[in-house]
Design a protein that fits this description.
11-stranded mixed β-sheet; 231 residues; 44% strand; mainly beta; 15 strands
Length: 231
Amino acid sequence: MNLSILLTDFIDTKGMLKTYRFIPINQYNRIVVDRLSDICTDVKENTDKDVGLLRVYNSDKCQLLSTTCKIKDFTDSYGKIFFCFEHMFIPVESSRYGSCGIYNFILPVDYRLTELHIVDPFDNNKNLKKKKHFKYDVFYDCESHIQVVQMQLRSARGNFSFILTGEACIDDGKNKFIDCKEQNIYLDEDIREFFFDDGIKKSFWKNLKESILLEPNFNGIGIDLKKLFQK
């Protein structure tokens, strides 16, 4: 698949939302990916990076933009988390050109969804749960205890918007969870550290540190990896 954006959200148990946007470094490139379920994962090149359910082949042709925010509409009660947030006007190449984006929503380790709605914010229905719903898939890795929601971002307008609301709790064998597909979910060690730990300096695309310079861009903050690794 050729993507114009790979958007990934990580939510933690305190309502902090880390958002990472992989985008091509210029308008002529695309993010080249395959679903891990379709390939032999043991064959891997230096620029291949596994993120959730996808393998990014041309990471040297991509840049990473990151933001962190505290979700206002978030509560934590007796091991259950409730959340609601939106992404508005995500730049996605018009679908008439054959490209699209992919969105991943990754829950805290050991948490699984008991309810989820991804809806159209422009639907006039005042009841959020009765707005037009977008199609998505839910996956769970029984070994790593990670759950991922994946959705295609496809639009003829050149941008995509949605509201995501739901609740999740710890998988203790007593709760009823929404239907999902069991599948191995991969995060390269350096990417896992980057997503789940506080230290961006630890490691991220070490083999690319001499070739990637991330400039400030739309909807995010660019990171100059060269300077970070020099410290």
